[in-house]
Amino acid sequence: MSRLSGPLHNPATDAGWEDPPPRKGFFTDTSVCIGCKACEVACKEWNDVPEDGLNLLGSSYDNTGALSASTWRHVAFIEQPAKPAANTVSLGMPTTQRPGDTMDASTLTDFRWLMSSDVCKHCTHAACLDVCPTGSLFRTEFGTVVVQDDICNGCGYCVPACPFGVIDRRAGDKNTKNVGIAQKCTLCYDRIGVGETPACAKACPTESIQFGDVDELRERAAARLATLQDQGVSTARLYGESPDDGVGGSGAMFLLLDEPEVYGLPPDPVVTTRDLPDMWKKAALAALGLLAGAAAAFLGGGG
Amino acid sequence: MSEQQAEFRAEKRTDVPEQSTTGVLDEKLQPGAAVESGERTGRRGAGRGGRRGRRRRDEHQMVPDATFTSYYGRPVVKASPWEADIPAYLFLGGLAGGSSLLGAGAQLTGRPVLRKVGRIGALSAITVSFAALVHDLGRPSRFVNMLRVAKPTSPMSVGTWILTMYGPLAGAAGAAELVAPFVDLAPKRLRFSLRLLVKAASPAGLGAALVGPAVASYTGVLLADTATPTWHAARKHLPFVFVGSAAAASGGLGMLLSPPSEAGPARRLALGGAVLELAVEHHMEGGMGITAEPLHTGKPGMLMRASKALTAIGAAGSLLAGRSRLAAAVSGTALLAGSACTRFGIFHAGQASARDPKYTVVPQRERIERGEAAGA
Amino acid sequence: MGASFGRGGATSFLQDLANSDCIVIQGSNMAECHPVGFQWVMEAKKRGAKVIHIDPRFTRTSAVADQHVPLRAGSDIAFLGGIINYILANEKFFREYVVAYTNASTILREDFADVDDLDGVFSGYDPKTATYNSETWAYEGVEDIPAPGDRTPRSDDGSDGGESHESQGERGAGHELGGHGVKLAHSRVRRDDTLQDPLCVFQVLKRHYARYTPEMVQQVCGVDPADFLAVCEAVTENSGRERTTAWVYSVGWTHHTVGVQYIRGSAIIQLLLGNIGRPGGGIMALRGHASIQGSTDIPTLFNLLPGYLPMPKVGEHDTLSGYVDTIRSPEQKGFWSEAESYIVSLLKSYWGEAATADNDFAFDYLPRLTGDHGTYQTVMDMLEDKVEGYFLLGQNPAVGSAHGKMQRLGMAHLKWLVVRDLNMIESATFWKDSPEIETGELRTEDIDTEVFFFPAASHAEKDGTFTQTQRLLQWHHKAVEPPGDCRSELNFFFHLGRKIRERLAGSTEQRDRPLLDLTWDYPVNELGEPSAEAVLREINGQHLTGEKAGQPLTSYTEMKADGSTAGGCWIYTGVYADGVNQAARRKPGQEQEWTALEWGWAWPANRRTLYNRAAADPEGKPWSERKAYVWWDEDQQKWTGHDVADFVADKAPSYRPEAGTPGAKGLAGDDPFIMQADGKAWLYAPEGLLDGPLPTHYEPAESPIRNPMYNQQASPVRQVYPRLDNLQNPSPPEPHADVFPYLFTTYRLTEHHTAGGMSRWLPYLSELQPEFFCEVSPALARERGLTHLGWATIVTARTAIEARVLVTERVVPLRIDGREFHQIGLPYHWGVGSSALVSGDSANDLFGVTLDPNVHIQESKVASCDIRVGRRPTGPGLLSFVEGYRRRAGITVETGNKQRTPESTPVATETQEV
Ligand SMILES: Nc1nc2c(c(=O)[nH]1)N[C@H]1C(S)=C(S)[C@@H](COP(=O)(O)OP(=O)(O)OC[C@H]3O[C@@H](n4cnc5c(=O)[nH]c(N)nc54)[C@H](O)[C@@H]3O)O[C@H]1N2
Ligand SMILES: Nc1nc2c(c(=O)[nH]1)N[C@H]1C(S)=C(S)[C@@H](COP(=O)(O)OP(=O)(O)OC[C@H]3O[C@@H](n4cnc5c(=O)[nH]c(N)nc54)[C@H](O)[C@@H]3O)O[C@H]1N2
Ligand code: SF4
Ligand code: SF4
Ligand code: SF4
Ligand code: SF4
Ligand code: SF4
Ligand SMILES: [Mo]
Questions:
Q1: Does A159 lie in the same domain as A46?
Q2: Above 60 in pLDDT, residue A231?
Q3: How do beta strands C67-69 and C50-54 pair?
Q4: C-alpha closest to that of B174 among B142, B127, B210, B132
Q5: Residue C851 CA to ligand 1 centre (angstroms)
Q6: Average pLDDT over residues C474-491
Q7: Which is the closest atom of ligand 4 to the Cα of A128?
Q8: Residue C34 CA: which ligand 7 atom is closest?
Q9: Where is the composition biased (Basic residues) (chain B) (predicted)?
Q10: A299 and A267, same structural domain?
Q11: Per-residue pLDDT tens for C493-546?
Q12: B28: which chain C residues are within 8 Å (Cβ-Cβ)?
């Protein structure tokens, strides 16, 4: 049985691949993202993902909302002042000053519009894969995590298991492609298999999405972080690159300009199966307890 | 933030998250709120970015003033796509497991009616629960794919295999009880095999009793092994709550359908189960922090309150049930209902906790602030 | 651009932006509208360049810029003027460059009077005709200037209201190439290289912009002085010998009644700072549609022939020689002196054998212009039933053109309408589902227009070229056969011509000769598709006689006026040199110099940066090693460098012509602007523009704000159309301007394409921006009770439309005269129809028709309006609702259509005129 948590150099090897190719992944540098959504469209075009609803969500320019069975790349848009005023501790007092009141040219330069393209993290320890009862989800030779459409029976277990809320079961009428089964980013398994770049990275005009060997991407990410910090961008931080994090590091890492939750990412994701052995122990104990309890109920004399 | 604002926010969150929060910082008033002065403060609260937020811990407060940041109030993790099938499956699975124990105990201690009740109860419960399980699949026709692999990392896979062991045993035992009266009436050709079945009943019943407890307890892991905040936070206790609930339910069934003379063990099992469930639950909720909130609020809150009341009544009733058939029936039913409420309550609390980013973000933030982050 | 440098269009190319030390993006939302080209801005940023975005809204471009400066739509001249003032007042200009390469030192006539003397107009203004006589603007000692009217080709926006902005550059170019530069060898111009003479251009400039102080900039643009000065410092610190700054604009600048002057403003700055013709410098005009540059080179403009040859006019151009004479004057400098060879070669390529020296090479076959046939004029003619039929190819005016209602009502007057498009666009379905059907202004049963819809093949389904922003021709190969009945334009027109000629075959009518004599012999494949390469070959041109007969020309210098050569568009000659499709070259960037000269083919002569002679100092040495680009190689006695020199390859920097030498030879070795009659770039345009020699601030045609500079409110020469169906909102000093207290601007979103024909039918794009919305600040939302995601109604004198509301801090109230001023943002991609996946009210229905006099562009970037909460009335109710507003604002046909304010012009002006 493969490791459930902690650092792991190549999950492909762990999954039993004989000397696999280098682990592949993404480094998404949100500091150069221009929110053009070319990645979203390219992904849908290449993977023939159905339209995901024509609704105006009012969340800035984001009308996609979140990753889903029919959205494998999602660009988040966040409007915020860059330098929060000093007195922003929440004391529950509705502040009297309202935006717009002070919003004139001189304060506007403080305004930030963050954009970030989210995707499946292809976790080193992938909860979705761990809990999949059919083996439909599997670890590819590239260390990525992919659903086999022809095997998934739509049990839906991977959905609540993912600590990033990525994978979902596709809803729709019976003619909808792959309806009823789990869908998510495949890291373009078909493309990278033949040495191609994933569609989203290929389409990105600013190299915000960088595809490559995870080891090399980690270095690039660190370098980029250093540059930005030298330029005084103190809010820059890396996300998902550390092999010590709760999922053993992800195949898709990010450079963010604010806390993860601002982008809808969990601040401290943990692969749920990390605690599974302990859970099994508890379950066994409980089962035995029930057995014993029942025995007692019968032996415990009386009518 | 005032209590009632906090309340207000609590409502806001659960309905249409899209409107309730923006992924921006404290003083940023998200669009729309700008002109809805009535709602502004409430909306603001919803929008509050939290890492600089002071967190007030107030025992008596329904909604602790945990301010936090999210992306337009949208969920961070996804709620399971499961519907009523699954909590029903949890309840019936537990009922089946417990009933098999009663059946076996009755078989060994010579309580024919209780044995019948246990075995047939187990058979019907497991049949329906299995149906529910299959029905909930996105592609029911592909259920068999469950049997492609045996994965200890997948509680559902483990569960499937437990069921495949338990099902036939409980089935045989239950079937035997059903056919027994008719064996002699049956046509010659069948008689032999039917006799065989009846003979097999005893070992099958005992076997089912050995596997039954696993059927009841693994479902705790099934829920806990997810990123659903309330379920995962309850991981240390869920199996115990579920076996307790299973014992109470099956005991209740025994009390309901068998004569007080034979129902003694059922009453004791029910009482023990009920006490275990209530005790562990209380302890569990104490340790869950903010993720316990969904167990108290909204629809799941009602279910949980009902489950506790019913279970308590049932437990109390079981003490009198020895003498009065009525009391037995009433408390038996209460226990069954209570157990069902427990499963539905916990299921829906989990779903709610997944839909509200608060329950994902706040505990993880607290972990980080305590320097206990998985990453740290 | 033409007026400043001699050619229209971008002076540099996108990749070159990576060499900039500072990039100012103003009047363009580059990241959203040119995302692929924007990679070079990001590259420059990575290399440490400062990126500044000056835009009314905080856009996705602002999001990655170092500084965003919000300003009031329509106020850019004040902002640019402020920078010019800062440069001059603080001596920040690049003296050597300015003295050597611009007309700064040229002395002007002393009777030239500036706007400050005449309360907002330049000398020569005639209030009766609302036009200028530019005589007094000229260089000292320059005589015989014909009136502007006849000297300026009436370059109306031929293609459409939208592309009109595109014609701007080319218009300038057509105009300059058209040889209307000052008819005088610059050796005879009087100069003062000390720049001290009070009458020299430099001093005039200094006086003109003295009033553009940071305080004035704040009052006009609503820009905080600190922000403004930060921009001034950034651009001046990043210009000079060692550093260069680039200016990027697009239609945020051109869709104005004074759009041409916006661009002139940036040209003046870039010349003063020495940023033209140098790497990382220049003015990057971003064009729109993939081949918009192409559609003006080989024009869809009614008033131009290929290569910017003017379309002949009745009376004016009755003979070939007469035509040629009006294009170039014999003593004229520059390359246009060969005009005759270009037009004759064109005629030969049209009519081959039938074009002979005896019949003026069939010059009479060319139609003659009888007047203005621009889009808006044509639509008004439709309303008068003067137009029977209309071809719409790749255009959706029902949504894309200003005053949508006028467009739709106009089309309803046609006998027939041909629409060729990828989708069933609103312009093809207006007769059954336009807003006018809903209001009852149109009734389907009353419309006699017969609409023919032809499904078109998309660019992926046919061969051909794109000529993009930087004049680069790139060949695209057909990827798939067009589905079903879809056909290419080439296919449609070839067979249309073939059929017509078959019909006319045997006709003896003289009027049918032009059609019957056409060279119409393109090879077709088995599917009947004509060969696009054969067409490109014809455009390139070939030798007709001599031993080279049949061989392609290699350069337009080979063209002859004796009929021995043919060529479809002289500036494209060379694209098929040596019988090779040069436009199809695709040598990867990493395998060649960064200028990538072997990717595609750029006109003229595959040059990437224009006027690049200016990248070297007068002696021919690079201004600095860091910015070396093109320089004089003493040993080889020729110009070399990273690009094809935009100069006579072997003309030494020291060369000085005989006084008055005509043609290219007339240019000195230090005259980098070879298309200019005097070889210099024009800080001050002595003529060529109809609205003044210098950019000066005027309010938009509709504006709630009073012009603080002088009584003259808006451009005194803007083209107005006072008609009942084209009412204007009042602007001060007129009363009731406060009925429309806000400004709105229109723009694009990355997720959609223009009028939506290529995006609103696609689910993957429509889901990304499903609904028409307006963007307002939280402050305006409070003021008008608008709620996020609620509905708002936006009203002008034309009509009212409804939109979902996005309340966002990306739109900020400006402080003007101490009071809060609000602007509203409206993307213009939606239209009312029944066939698209997503539809909505069209922003263009809000606009009226008021045009820039030079290029006839509609002012579709700014107008005044009112906004109120809730949805608009439907049906006839909408009409009475709008009528109510008109009454409250006391709107009549005159409202907003008086060009000169105040009417009573100072006597001074009258006497100024001769
Ligand atoms: N995704 C996408 N790309 C496109 C197109 C498309 O439809 N969709 N269209 C193509 C075409 S045809 C064209 S012409 C180009 C147009 O390219 P752009 O000109 O960049 O596009 P716009 O959004 O029309 O206008 C640019 C900006 O001008 C600002 N603006 C408006 N008025 C003023 C003003 O008075 N001063 C200043 N400084 N700014 C002002 C607007 O706020 C807007 O942000 O884009 C091309 N590229
Ligand atoms: N208010 C306001 N109005 C504007 C502007 C603005 O900024 N604000 N911008 C103006 C500008 S810059 C422009 S360019 C115009 C654009 O306005 P239009 O040109 O009127 O609108 P488009 O949608 O670009 O029309 C192009 C059509 O060509 C079709 N098409 C695409 N490829 C082909 C082909 O190969 N063959 C044929 N036959 N058809 C094809 C597309 O489906 C589409 O319907 O809008 C102008 N109008
Ligand atoms: S992010 Fe979620 S879906 Fe993707 S690999 Fe990790 S656990 Fe699986
Ligand atoms: S839904 Fe499909 S992929 Fe997900 S766990 Fe079940 S079988 Fe595996
Ligand atoms: S890698 Fe492929 S599947 Fe994954 S998001 Fe990018 S394009 Fe879509
Ligand atoms: S394509 Fe690149 S730049 Fe565009 S949204 Fe996606 S990540 Fe951002
Ligand atoms: S759409 Fe075409 S022209 Fe526009 S940016 Fe993309 S590639 Fe360039
Ligand atoms: Mo355009």
A1: yes
A2: yes
A3: parallel
A4: B127
A5: 18
A6: 93
A7: 5
A8: 5
A9: 43-55
A10: no
A11: 999 999 999 999 999 999 999 999 999 999 999 989 999 999 999 999 999 998
A12: 809
Q: Using the predicted structure, report yes or no on whether residue B24 has a pLDDT greater than 90.
A: no
- Check CB contact under 8 Å for C60 and A103: no
Contact (CB<8Å) C788/B29: no
Q: Note whether A34 and A157 are same-domain residues.
A: yes
Q: pLDDT exceeding 70 applies to what percent of chain A?
A: 89
**Cβ contacts of B143 on chain A, cutoff 8 Å:** 153
Confidence check: pLDDT of C658 > 90: no
CB contact under 8 A, A105 and C808: no
User: What's residue C662's pLDDT?
Assistant: 67
Q: What is the CATH number of the domain that holds A217?
A: 3.30.70.20
State the total domains in chain A.
Answer: 2
What does the pLDDT read at residue C256? 95
Name the amino acid, one letter, at C872. Answer: R
Residues of the domain holding A170: 11-81+107-272
C472-475 long-range contacts (CB < 8 A, ≥24 apart) are C472/C13, C472/C599, C472/C600, C472/C601, C472/C602, C472/C608, C473/C294, C473/C572, C473/C575, C473/C582, C473/C583, C473/C600, C473/C601, C473/C602, C473/C603, C474/C583, C474/C599, C474/C600, C475/C536, C475/C581, C475/C583, C475/C584, C475/C600
- Let me know how long chain A is: 303
Does the residue A93 lie in any domain? no
Whether residue A86 is contained in a domain is answered as no
Amino acid of residue C189: V
Would you state the pLDDT for residue A103?
Answer: 37
What's the pLDDT score for residue C184?
A: 46
CA neighbours within 13 Å on the CB side: how many for C514?
8
Q: Which of residues 756-795 of C touch B (CB under 8 A)?
A: 778, 781-782, 785-790
Measured from the CB, is residue A30 less than 6 Å from ligand 5?
no
Q: What is the pLDDT of residue A22?
A: 95
Of A34, A54, A108, the CB nearest to C60: A34
At residue C335 the predicted structure's pLDDT band, cuts being 50, 70 and 90, is low
Summarize pLDDT for C17-30 with one digit per residue, the tens.
999 999 999 999 99
Nearest CA in chain C to B36: C787
Mutate to test the pocket of ligand 7, among C13, C29, C36 (most ligand atoms within 8 A of CB): C36
Question: What's the CA-to-centroid distance between A147 and ligand 4, angstroms?
Answer: 8
Distance CA C689, CA C134 (A): 9
Rounded Cα gap, residues C230 and C79, in angstroms: 13
Residue with token string 């001093």 = C203
Q: Is residue A171 part of a domain?
A: yes
Backbone angles phi, psi at B93, to 5 degrees: -60, -45
- Per-residue pLDDT at A93: 32
Same domain, A258 and A287: no
For the segment B153-167, what is each residue's pLDDT rounded down to a tens digit?
999 999 999 999 999
pTM of the model: 0.90
Q: Which of residues 303-322 of B touch C (CB under 8 A)?
A: none
Task: Tell me: do A233 and A298 sit in the same domain.
Answer: no
A266 and A280 in a common domain: no
Burial class (CB in 10 A: 0-12, 13-18, 19+), B233: buried
Residues A239 and A294 in one domain: no
Q: Among A61-70, A163-172, C62-71, C578-587, where is mean pLDDT lowest?
A: C578-587
Amino acid at B180: A
Cβ within 8 Å of residue A285, ≥6 positions away:
B239, B240
The pLDDT, as a whole number, for residue C163 is 35
Q: What confidence tier does A92 reach under pLDDT thresholds 50, 70, 90?
A: very low
Nearest CA in chain A to C53: A109
Question: What is the rounded average pLDDT of the residues C467-486?
Answer: 89
pLDDT over 60 at B38, yes or no: no
- Tell me how close the Cα of C41 comes to any Cα of chain B, in angstroms: 28
Q: Which two tokens stand for residue C717?
A: 């020469």
